[in-house]
Amino acid sequence: MSDRQSNALTAPAGPGARKNLVLLVLCAQLFLDSMDVSLMGVALPEMQHDMGLNAEQLQWIISGYAVAYGGFLLLGGRAADLFGRRRMFFWATVVFAAVSLVGGLVTDGWLLIITRVVKGVAAAFIAPAALSIITTTFPEGPERNRAMSMFGLTGASGYAAGLVFSGLLTSLSWRLTFFVPFVVAALVLLTARSVIAPDERADGRKPGFDALGAVTATGGVLLLVLALTRAPEVGWGSAVTVASLVVSVLLLIAFVVIQNRRTDPLVDLAIFRSRTLSAANVVGVVWACATIGWQFIALLYLQDALDYSALKAGMAIVPMAVSILVAVNIAPKVIARIGLRVPAVIGLLLQGAGIFLFLRAGEDASYPAVLLPALIVHGLGNGTSFLSFNIAGVSGVADDKQGLAASLIQSAVQLGGGLGVAVGAAVLAGSAGGAGISAYHHAFVAVGVFSLVGALASAIGLGAPQHTGGEGAAGEAPAGEAPAGVESGRV
After folding, report:
1. Given 23, 53, 124, 350, which residue has the most CB atoms within 10 angstroms?
2. CA dist list (Å): 453 to 38, 286, 437
3. 306/316 Cα distance (integer angstroms)
């Protein structure tokens, strides 16, 4: 049987049920990837008590996944182009499922962290492969816009669901936070090969594989987070901290030099000529620093300071998860009417306000009067700003660079998450010896400031999109104009 005949049998036919099944499988895995970012939050104290983890190990359970995910996303996108989208999606999901199972079985803290890091690397290969399968399955226009909207909503839903499920699963056993992702990933594997069309054989010269660029970028980010994590323990002026920061900067500079000199770079730096795209990635980093860093601190506060059980802490987050979903559903209609800038600024200010409202929380904070309003305000701002900078990050980009643009914005969010947890943990440990309500307040202020930085970056940089290359590239349109593809509330 020829490759063309095989593709015809396995590819989704027309706009009907087969395409929807492809989208369902891809969204199921994205939901799992996003959920895994937040799933550990409520389970951390139980893990610490059961396995005797120290503060550094506890922090790396969260940031190890996020940093590995963000650091390898660009390499994952490149690998999908070179070796096949379906192939990379399938085998990366195999790794994701395997390390989820192993993570639920290990009894050593550092082995647990290794499984989280490996899972983050696997997720980094899954996400860009899944996104590129969508863009090649659904034709450009309203059909693809609807698919992308569903894909984005799935990511937001997965993150919110992780906060809730974490409490429910941990009330039974924290190990279920590893075993449940294994089951879901296994179900995805059972359907992926029969639903997703096989990769087409590439003819002609394949582009180069920029392994050196990937090593320098990932190494630079990992050392930066390591320096922020260890500084409260060893000192900001210590040789370890200073050396880590210096080597981190040198590696990131080397990455830029390598990209400028390579014929087939990991990242075509010309894409950053778009002010909107560059601003969107800056906003993505600080948005994640604020919200993921806040999550890490808030869940420790609920369980350590207020003595909430794991189940109670997870249920306490439900109103925020609901408000995120409400915002993500309403935001496209607002963006279609007034553009990206205003929703992004307002969303980030609301996100920051929700974090700063936690400064009212004390040793016996009332949930209805103090915590609930903060959670709702944070969720509304979180969902609104999330959709705004994600649209900005891929709008106005030439078709042949859409995968790169998507990988960049995903990398920004994942790297920001790792940095936010590192900053929050550093402030929490260094303020008043890490004890007392004042330490939590200082940490809330530290991560809340990132939302204000994001609001400022959005106000300055999120105008209408500017094309970054290719035939027919257009200049930047008026700032209030909504990006192409955002119409009638669809993204």
Report:
1. 124
2. 23, 7, 25
3. 12
C-alpha 425/C-alpha 77 separation (Å) is 31
- What is d(CA 371, CA 391) in angstroms, rounded to the nearest whole number? 31
Tens of each residue's pLDDT in the chain, 491 residues: 444 444 433 444 444 567 778 888 888 877 887 777 677 777 888 888 888 888 778 878 877 777 777 667 777 877 777 778 888 889 999 999 999 999 989 888 889 999 998 998 898 888 878 877 876 777 655 566 566 666 666 766 676 677 677 778 888 888 888 898 898 889 888 888 778 877 776 555 566 667 788 788 878 877 776 676 666 567 778 888 889 889 989 998 999 999 888 877 777 788 888 888 899 999 999 998 999 889 889 888 988 888 887 678 778 888 887 888 788 778 877 887 888 899 999 999 999 999 999 999 888 889 999 999 999 999 999 888 887 888 788 777 765 666 677 778 877 887 787 788 778 887 887 765 555 788 899 999 999 999 999 999 999 998 654 444 443 333 343 334 444 444 333 33
Indicate the pTM of the whole model: 0.73
In the beta sheet, which residues pair with residue 487?
A: 490
Domains of the chain plus CATH, in order, are 1-210+262-266 (1.20.1250.20), 269-468+475-491 (1.20.1250.20)
What is the DSSP-derived secondary structure letter of residue 162?
H
| Helices first, then strands: H and E counts in the chain | 17, 0
Among 188, 185, 149, CA closest to 24:
188
Are the beta carbons of 128 and 403 closer than 8 angstroms? yes
6: number of Cβ within 10 Å: 12
- What secondary structure letter does DSSP report for 272? G
Contact in structure between 327 and 383 (CB atoms under 8 Å) = yes
List Cβ<8 Å contacts ≥24 apart for 278-282. Answer: 278/461, 279/392, 279/457, 279/458, 279/460, 279/461, 279/462, 280/389, 280/390, 280/392, 280/393, 280/409, 280/412, 280/461, 280/462, 281/393, 281/408, 281/409, 281/412, 282/412, 282/454, 282/457, 282/461
- 490 backbone φψ class: left, alpha, beta (φ>0; ψ -120 to 50): beta
Residue 392 near residue 384, CB atoms below 8 Å: no
* Residue 490, strand partner residues: 487
